[in-house]
Design goal:
Layout lengths: L6 H16 L8 H10 L7 E6 L3 E7 L2 E11 L26 H17 L4 E9 L7 H7 L10 E8 L7 E2 L3 E2 L3 E10 L3 E2 L10 H10 L15 E9 L6 E2 L2 E10 L4 H19 L3 E10 L3 E2 L1 H13 L25 E8 L18 H17 L8
């Protein structure tokens, strides 16, 4: 396997990952994490540093000697609103917030890339290392692309890696074309009228409507394989009334996630769900309002960009899993396909590791040099990056 980092450098990055893990910041609040990134990587002497990109995003730019393409590598800054269940010495010190998706590890892998190309500049073009805010809410990539400062580093190619429990450790899954689904959050509000619990007939309770809506959502579970026509609606929260015994509920709220393979198809699914909910609300005499949130566009891998990841993984002699993608999950990296040839790769974090977003998940440190090697292998193909070699 091609190695770019020695053991001392890897240990240094592992310690940094543990520090990041202890001080998680959720989407839109990553100010301290962004400062830490700039400070930790200052000695790599980037040619240009952009801060406040799309919120708290950071872009480090490393110029090559000759003209060439701009290649953007992206990782994420944000953590999740999850209480960590762990005895790790470096567990989260922020109650109710934790790096339960591995973004701390992705930052450490990107830090490894920065430490290497800080010493071994590209031969041509530019490498842009983007530490993106707000991936978990689907706002980050869109905000970065909309920021006028992004015009300074608009890429020709863009690449991202995400770890995935359920794939063997350090096995990779990448392919051209569809890689993730599109996803959208939907919030339903039902309004009725409270009543004394002894006389419920004098009010308008949403209880029966909630039950009917939950049942109606079953009609939108279509297909198992990610292909045209696939649909999923997943109920994530139901809240009704107040935590008392003497008053019937006068309002209710349901939250759900909609998924389709194509970004455009999700709007038709939304229309169908709203029609079904609206009919039930009307029959039950309830007011009905809705709002949509966290729209993740589908990730579609460009063939040339996906091939670059394939070549990098072959050089590192990593095993590939060919039946894993596309997945039902969503990733806001799909936005970068609108401005560049882009590709997202999944790397296995182990078969027995808790799933991302579980409260006992932790990123495997063994992946830090592997993610860095994949990114550097991609940079080498487009920009030229000298290599250390080993076994």
């Amino acid at each position: 396997m091609t190695l770019y980092l020695d053991n001392a450098e890897i240990a240094h990055l592992r310690a940094w990952r543990h520090k990041l893990h202890q001080y998680p910041e959720i989407s839109g609040e990553e100010m301290g994490t962004a400062r830490e990134v700039v400070s930790f990587l200052a000695d790599t002497n980037p040619d240009h540093v952009i801060t406040g990109l799309g919120g708290h995003g950071v872009a480090l730019v490393y110029n090559g000697a000759d003209p060439g393409p701009t290649v953007l590598l992206r990782c994420e800054l944000d953590a999740l609103q999850i209480h960590e269940v762990s005895d790790l010495p470096y567990r989260s010190r922020i109650d109710g917030k934790a790096h339960m998706c591995g973004h701390d590890g992705h930052m450490a892998g990107m830090g490894a890339v920065a430490r290497y190309i800080g010493k071994h500049r590209p031969l041509r073009g530019r490498a842009v290392l983007l530490f993106q805010p707000a991936e978990e809410t689907a706002h980050g990539a869109e905000a970065v692309l909309a920021d006028p400062k992004f015009a300074e580093v608009t890429p020709d190619y863009a690449f991202a890696i995400h770890n995935m429990p359920g794939l063997p450790l350090a096995h990779v899954a990448v392919a051209p074309g569809q890689i993730t689904c599109a996803s959208m959050g939907l919030r339903i509000e039902l309004s009725g009228k409270t009543a004394h619990a002894s006389m419920p007939e004098t009010g308008v309770s949403p209880a029966r409507a909630v039950a009917l809506i939950i049942q109606a959502l079953e009609q939108f579970q279509v297909g198992e394989l990610i292909a045209p026509g696939f649909r999923r609606v997943t109920l994530t929260q139901v809240n009704m009334g107040k935590p008392v015994f003497g008053v019937t509920p006068g309002s209710a709220e349901l939250r759900m996630t909609l998924r389709t393979p194509q970004s455009e198809a999700i709007h038709a699914l939304l229309d169908d769900v709203l029609r079904a909910v609206g009919e039930i609300a009307d029959r039950e005499g309830l007011g009905f309002h809705h709002s949509t949130h966290n729209f993740f566009r589908a990730c579609i891998n460009d063939p040339e960009a996906a091939h670059a990841f394939e070549v990098a993984s072959e050089r590192m002699k990593l095993s590939r899993v060919t039946t894993y993608v596309p997945i039902r999950g969503a990733e806001d990296f799909g936005m970068f396909g609108s401005c560049s040839k882009s590709a997202l790769l999944f790397i296995g974090s182990g078969m027995d590791r808790p799933m991302v977003h579980n409260p006992d998940y932790d990123f495997p440190d063994e992946l830090i040099p592997v993610e860095a090697g994949l990114f550097l292998g991609v940079l080498d193909q487009f920009l030229g990056v000298s290599q250390k070699s080993g076994a």
